[in-house]
Amino acid sequence: MIKRIFISALFLLVISSYNNIFAADKNVVCNNSGCSGFSGSLFSESGMLPGDTLSKTFSVKNERNEPISLTLESEENAGTDEIFKQKIVAVVYENGGLIKFSGTFENFLVSDIALGNLSPNETKNYEISISFPTDAGNEYQGKVINFDLSITITGDDGSTEVLSSSTSNTNSSSNNSSRPGSILGTILGLSDTGGVKLVLIFGGIGILLTSIGLKLIHSNRRG
What is the annotated signal peptide range for this record (predicted)? Predict the structure, then answer.
């Protein structure tokens, strides 16, 4: 009985301390003066290879005395390659488990993802995971995805606020939920998969020839 109580207490301690030990790449705080903490690029990566996964995180803390709701939005920018965004897979997690979105980047770029509600003094943590499937070929060499991200915060009174990438807190609250222009510039590129495959092929051949040579030397010594 005591053992069961101890295990239950330990489980509750781990769950309750999750938000405290979570280290996010961006920390958004919303109070009565507005929201801030989402400035600067969340992703800025290049040289993805088949099998690679990139993950970035952000937290949102509600310090207001009213609940708020969150929506994650993305927008495609010029220069994005169509076949690349159809291959890349995006997944959005909440608090390390609950999935808010899962699909190709093509769908991610046109989706308004509901991140849920935050009660007063509540904090939630989110992760955006971007994966490049292992079966991708040379047709994806040099391809890029260029996109913006934004978070729309809606108050209990219906007012909305959109976080921009401005380094100063110039966000405004209004009933107009229009998205600002460039928010989070993001570029994902693909390295030369052909060159990597050749290295792996020749490396495998080298290992095979070395193994055969060692066996021949060993046989000659025994003879």
Answer: 1-23
pLDDT at 138: 81
pLDDT of 6:
42
| Domain encompassing residue 46 | 24-206
Structural domains in the chain (count): 1
Q: Is residue 57 part of a domain?
A: yes
Residue 2 included in any domain: no
Phi, psi of 197 (to 5 degrees): -65, -40
Q: Which residues of the chain have pLDDT under 50?
A: 3, 5-20, 166-186, 193-202
39-68 CB burial, b ≥16 within 10 A, e <16: bebbbeeeebebebeeebbbbbbbebeeeb
pLDDT at 90: 95
What is the pLDDT, as a whole number, of residue 141?
84
User: Is residue 15 included in any domain, yes or no?
Assistant: no
- For residue 136, being part of any structural domain is answered with yes
Q: Where are the alpha helices (DSSP H) in 88-139?
A: 105-108
169-193: pLDDT as tens digits: 333 343 333 333 333 344 566 555 4
